[in-house]
Write the structure tokens for this entry.
Amino acid sequence: MLENKEGQAVPSVVFKTRQGDTWADISSDDIFKGKTVVLFALPGAFTPTCSSTHLPRYNELAPVFTKEGVDSIVCLSVNDAFVMNAWSADQHAENITFIPDGNGDFSQGMGMLVDKLDLGFGKRSWRYSMLVKDGTIEKMFIEPNKPGDPFEVSDADTMLNYINASAELPKRVTLFSKPGCPHCSRAKVALTEKQYKYEEITLGDNGISYSSLTAVTGQGTTPQVFIDGKHIGTADDLEKWLATN
Ligand code: BEZ
């Protein structure tokens, strides 16, 4: 179980995907032939670790993977095409190709199909990642064979570190905003002009109020911007920071 398959070819299977309102078969060759692909596999769409951490970080680092010569990043799960498409829409992970391995054929061929009967999940993929070049597996990061759902090595940073340990990571930008706030729009334009992606926390959404803004930033006005965890401040503060960084 959980055999390392470095040096071997990926399993040759056909995936049943949905594109618009029709079924579309996608083969292993379609995904891997002549391409450099990073694939990460996980136990289920919409599950907490997968949705909050595993998938978003691959999406965030996708431009860096592209710079490093990776043609596509594939997220594979033993779920059907409808579920994978719904998860893709929910995640806004535009840099990731979602592949439904509904029958588990690919996962079985990889030796990664495991029982998750205790959770009512049936058979699912073990969590792992791999770098595949022209259909041959160059590197695998397989989560350790421990009870539960370990998540220690199949993450995006570990894979990127393998590909190029000195690749420059994008800065993590978070912006507190409020609907209709012109200074928030100014801050977002300034970030976009400098090609910074940002995560936006909008007051009024999901029950987020001034109470959280004040608790986190110590300020009562929007926007409030953080870069790599450091509090930058308002739109004016951000513009000053961008001018010197
Ligand atoms: C999770 O991603 O957190 C998760 C995955 C499988 C089962 C339960 C939780």
